[in-house]
Design goal:
heterodimer; A: 294 residues; mainly alpha; 2 strands; 69% helix; B: 302 residues; MetI-like fold; 2 domains; two-stranded antiparallel ribbon; 12 helices
Chain lengths: 294, 302
């Protein structure tokens, strides 16, 4: 954006002032809520009860130790009750979010590449299938999916989860499609003349050219899957993830210690917050329908 | 090797590569989209029961659909609440997000900070956001500021506005990225020319920015319409499976109904399928027609 036009000293418009005030209030609420909650997680229950707003009156890591010891999730294997701790749930979350995001990113990019660079009737059909699938809202298919997975013995298995991620029907397909279409095919032709296979051209030339976009899509999917507690709850009941564990911790265990409740939320939030801080520019500025940016 | 033979061989290898890549995703689509949806339609006309520890499936015609209409009062709440959340998205979230995105794109004061705070809720697990929000309502609003007899989150008259506020706060972040990306592709030179020609802020926005991002706005509205039957409005995170009927949305009701007979039970599956099918039959044509109308009647970027 042209800085001379938008950043030079000028008279502030009414729009700018009004939106600034609205955004300032909104940001104050969001930032205030997060900072207040974070600082409250370091207070004892009694101290918090005495004055919920007195955030600087105590600094104690006891809630985190308590949550680390008590945040557990249980499920039944036959008649035996199995309980897993926070570390196992984190492991399941990493596998669920990381594995799912990796597979979905790769196949979305790969199919988009095929459709963008190998023009055929099938490519046109696949592209239209994506558009139609995105546009038409289909509701309430979870029972049907559950039944299907149970019938083919894929329910409650990692394979059952990962097989579902071998998909291309999502909005990222269109972004990858535009990105691959914008890349000159001369790179591929030169590589073919040098003896490279189609697979090698895709893996060694084309995919690295959209590496930045791929990483952004991977991060966004990772965050989405990390935060999802409902799908693993239904489809992967014996492998509780951290988000699902948090849900059961707060709803089933009746924890009255409010700062400990907040601390449990902070623990689950830390990994995605770290990712957000490290990759914030990539996440918030690298995704365009026109292709590759930055 | 002559050129024709080389090209023919490469084309053949390209076909192998192409099918090698697309075959698995196509199979996935056939099984997990087409198959699941066909099965969903069939399930809507079945009934699941357990007799002598054996699962029994019987065809019941439209009985599952009839069950949906049996409790018309609950159905009324579901439709009304879903429409309220949709209206909040359509008339508050989307327009304000649009104005916020324009502010950020024009790099006005503190735009980077605002960009982060708007986007922040979308990276937070709904459970975490709900813990923070619930604590704020319970401990600050309930005990210090308003001091009602019953918690604002539990009282029927106030629970919906409280949840609606959370929906709006979180809603900006879901849309801001798409609007920002869409707006960043608007031609700067055209905006510059308008500015030099003395066009006002409103005129630039209405005549240049709005037409160029109209497609994105339409998609946002379409997604919001689709959300009429899927939006759970953080109710699960806030109330577990126990939200009162007066607060429920269609999306939440369908999801928690799966657990009505116990998490492993399939007794309510058919009812959920019927509800989902009914919602799809009502919403899908309306969504497609609305999209068609908005694209036809919306501003052109030429």
């Amino acid at each position: 954006m042209n800085k001379s036009l938008f950043n030079k000293k000028r008279k502030h418009t009414a729009y700018e002032i009004v939106i600034f005030v609205v955004l300032a209030v909104y940001s104050l609420i969001i930032a205030g809520l997060f900072i207040w909650a974070f600082l409250s997680s370091f207070r004892t229950h009694n101290n918090f009860r005495a004055n919920p707003l007195g955030v600087f009156t105590e600094f104690d890591f006891g809630n985190y130790k308590y949550v680390f010891d008590s945040l557990k999730s249980s499920y039944y294997k036959g008649k035996a009750k199995v309980t897993v701790g926070l570390l196992t749930m984190f492991g399941n979350s990493v596998l669920y979010a990381g594995g799912g995001a990796l597979i979905q990113t790769f196949f979305t990019a790969a199919v988009a590449y095929c459709c963008a660079r190998y023009k055929s009737v099938i490519s046109t059909i696949l592209r239209n299938v994506v558009i139609v699938t995105i546009i038409i809202p289909v509701v309430g298919t979870m029972p049907s999916l559950l039944e299907l997975l149970k019938n083919v013995n894929l329910h409650n298995t990692w394979i059952g989860i990962f097989v579902q991620r071998v998909t291309f029907c999502n909005a990222y397909f269109l972004i990858f499609y535009a990105a691959f279409e914008a890349i000159s095919w001369e790179y591929a032709e030169s590589a073919f003349i040098d003896g490279a296979s189609h697979f090698l051209v895709f893996m060694k030339i084309m995919l690295p050219l959209v590496a930045s976009l791929s990483l952004t899509v991977f991060i966004l999917l990772f965050v989405q899957f990390w935060n999802d507690y409902q799908t693993p709850w239904l489809l992967l009941p014996d492998y509780p993830t951290a988000a699902r564990g948090l849900y059961h911790y707060l709803n089933d265990m009746q924890i009255n210690n409010v700062p400990a409740q907040i601390a449990s939320g902070v623990i689950i939030f830390i990994p995605v917050f770290t990712i957000f801080v490290v990759f914030r520019n990539r996440i918030m500025g690298n995704l365009t329908e026109g292709g590759i940016k930055g | 090797m002559n050129k024709t033979s080389f090209l023919s061989k490469m084309k053949q290898k390209g076909t192998f590569f192409y099918w090698g890549i697309v075959i698995l995703p196509i199979l996935n689509y056939l099984v997990f989209f087409i198959g699941v949806n066909i099965n969903n339609v069939l399930m809507a006309f079945k009934e699941y029961s357990v007799v002598n520890y054996e699962k029994q499936i019987t065809w019941v015609g439209f009985a599952n659909f009839a069950k949906i209409f049996q409790d018309s009062e609950v159905l009324g709440y579901l439709v009304k609440n879903s429409l309220i959340y949709f209206a909040a998205t359509l008339f508050i979230v989307i327009p304000l997000t649009l104005l916020f995105a324009y502010y950020i794109v024009k790099k006005y004061t503190a735009h980077t900070f605002f960009k982060v705070t708007i986007f922040m809720p979308s990276i937070v697990c709904s459970m975490v956001l709900v813990i923070f929000y619930r604590t704020f309502v319970n401990e600050i609003l309930d005990k210090i500021i308003i001091q009602p007899e019953i918690s604002l989150i539990r009282k029927d008259e106030t629970a919906l506005p409280i949840m609606l506020m959370l929906h709006i706060i979180g809603g900006f972040s879901a849309n801001i990225l798409l609007f920002l990306n869409s707006m960043s592709q608007t031609s700067v030179s055209v905006m510059e020319a308008a500015c030099i020609d003395g066009a006002s802020e409103f005129r630039t926005f209405r005549s240049i920015v709005l037409p160029s991002i109209w497609g994105t706005i339409v998609e946002m509205i379409v997604i919001a319409m689709a959300g009429l039957a899927t939006n759970q409005a953080n109710l699960q995170a806030m109330y577990g499976n126990e939200a009162s009927n007066t607060m429920r949305t269609v999306g939440y009701h369908i999801f928690v109904s799966i657990f009505d007979g116990g998490a492993e039970s399939e007794i309510k599956y058919a009812y959920c399928s019927a509800f989902g099918l009914l919602a799809t039959v009502v919403i899908a044509p309306v969504t497609i027609f609305a999209r068609y109308l908005m694209n036809k009647l919306g501003p052109s970027d030429r």
